[in-house]
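Lecture notes, unit on protein representations.

Consider one protein chain, 205 amino acids long.
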Amino acid sequence: MIKSFILLASLLLTINVYSQNSDDARFRGGLILGFNATQIDGDDMGGFKKFGLNSGAIVYFVLDERFSISTSLLYSQKGAKSSFNTKNSFSSRKIIIDYVDIPIQFNYHDKEIAIFSGGIALGRLVRYKQFVGGIPIHDTDPNPYSDWSLSAVANVTFLIKQQFGVNIHFQYSVLSLGERFDESNFKNRGQYNNILGLRTMYFFN
């Protein structure tokens, strides 16, 4: 999976280099670096208390001066954390589920002031850990989460000069993360990733 991530990132950067040398400049590439504040709806732990990395590369296919279609390759750390700070408390819980996400979005460019985006994201689970009272239980319990996920995504990027932007990111699972969870208090006994993100963006061209 890591090799695939590096290969796809290299492909995105290659497309961007080509676009810089093209008179038509139909492509625009960039880098993303920021963080997620996450929770899992249905796990009985409320609040966006779990923080993690959200980073990768993005390429825009320019349709005209107002509209574009984009795809990204992102490493996104998700999960949930209880409100208890004491690691050895048996009431404390922490869930770590990291994904490689590939969002596909439709974008509206507002006179180089902001970019409004919405679409879907396919995710591949690459890491799972769960702790109860500071003790890892993922080594003894089977992974309850599916290898693949599907999410709805929405973003707004406020542009700073021409090459920099500040991005506010929202993402929510369209499908439950795995099998039905008997302890879930959410609809259909499912669990759903709920993500708020703040990211910086650098555009190559």
